[in-house]
Amino acid sequence: SIDTLDYSGTGLNSGSKVVLAAYGEVIRHLCTEVPAALKELRSFINPKLVLPGIVVLQTADFSNYQNAGREMKELDESLVDSIDALQQTAIIIIADDAAFVSAALNNFLWVAFTRCNPSHDIYGIGAFTSFKHWGCKGPMVLDARIKPHHAPPVEKDPAVEKSIDAFFAKGGSLHGIG
């Protein structure tokens, strides 16, 4: 389905879609700590475990897709010899702030799935195409950095928060509801 609030593309209702389907017997166990290979990278820093099998890395701000392609190629070249050591890592998220992404499930979901346009921002370690089907031998990589066409992050205004809290305080019109 298309969502008018789809922020991943460069225009209204223009973000691409991807389906990840998993079915069948367990083929691997997911990592529960950051693999050593991801701790030794130069340009990709601050590795954090988000969920089992999902690690977020932080790197320089997104500038354009030509540079992003070079950055992701550098990541692939740095990790392609570690594919065996990364078999328990299913997804690597590339983000502006790894600590924020890993701090809460909501942060991960928001960043990973509103800042990644599948047709432009999915890469893979050891990526290949076979009979028109894309795949990767290592982790799938989602470039979930803020892009120039994205709206700025919504942040709470402390003054507005304080005025809203007054409605819920004792004596306020919404006291006892929530």
Give the helix level as a range of percent. 25-40%
Question: Biggest sheet: strands, sense, closure?
Answer: 5 strands, mixed
The number of distinct β-strands equals 7
**What is the average of the pLDDT values?**
90
Radius of gyration: 19 Å
The helix-and-strand class reads: alpha/beta
Low-pLDDT ranges:
none
**Strand arrangement across the biggest beta sheet:** 1-2-3-7-4
Question: How big a fraction of the residues is strand?
Answer: 15-25%
Order of helices and strands: HEEHEHHHEEEEH
Count of discrete alpha- or pi-helical segments spanning 4 or more residues: 6
Question: How does the overall form come out from the CA principal axes?
Answer: elongated
Please give the alpha-carbon distance between the first and last residues. Answer: 33 Å
Walk me through the topology.
Blueprint: H1 36-39, E1 45-51, E2 54-58, H2 65-79, E3 91-95, H3 98-103, H4 105-114, H5 118-121, E4 122-124, E5 127-130, E6 133-136, E7 140-143, H6 158-168
Parallel strand pairs: 2-3, 3-7
Antiparallel strand pairs: 1-2, 4-7, 5-6
Description:
The protein contains 6 helices and 7 strands, in the order H-E-E-H-E-H-H-H-E-E-E-E-H. The chain is of the alpha/beta class and 178 residues long. The protein has helices spanning 36-39, 65-79, 98-103, 105-114, 118-121, 158-168, and strands at 45-51, 54-58, 91-95, 122-124, 127-130, 133-136, 140-143. The strands form 2 sheets. Strands 1-2-3-7-4 form a 5-stranded mixed sheet, sandwiched between helices. Strands 5-6 form a two-stranded antiparallel ribbon. It is 28% helix and 18% strand. The longest helix has 15 residues, at 65-79. Strand 1 and strand 2 form a beta hairpin.
